[in-house]
From TrEMBL:
Positions of the DNA-binding region: 109-173
Sequence ranges assigned to domain HMG box in this UniProt record: 109-173
Source organism of this protein record: Prolemur simus (Greater bamboo lemur)
Keyword Isomerase: no
Cellular component GO terms held in the UniProt record: nucleus
Name under which the protein is recorded: HMG box domain-containing protein
Amino acid sequence: FNSEVDSLKMALPKSQDHWSKKDVLMLLECMENNLPSNDNHMSQTTQSHLDWGQIAFKNFSGEMCKLKWLEISHKLNKSCALKELVLEAKKHVKNPNRNKQGKKHPDFPKKPLTAYIRFFKEQRPQYTQMYPGLRNQELTKILSKKYRELPEQTNDGSGTELWMDKLGHAQLH
């Protein structure tokens, strides 16, 4: 696959390598219109039988269209029919950020810990020393009970809000 893409890239002029979102959607539309009606084969098989000359449009030759399709399809699941693959590619082009929800930049600040987690992290070592024979599950039950017993807010600033304020995060409301 990579050698085919590399050889096609070398054959293409650099100035014609720019594809807009509209052009990519047009390519996918042309591919969809040129697919055989009984496309039950794997995408690789059908792709090899496509007439890329019929798919060519605007200033994009059949070879350029084939290269762009290889770039697009490289990121997709190839274990389905080409028609399904083209539809998946259309969705991806129309909404490119849909698949990137889980990926965040490593320098972005992390979400602040909840008051419960902060309480648990700070109190656990103390309770582990107080009850050395307890299993984690039992220790968690004790800490959860202690946390629930905390008042929401007391006059001296202790309670659940104290645990949110400790690291400078917004108070609970």
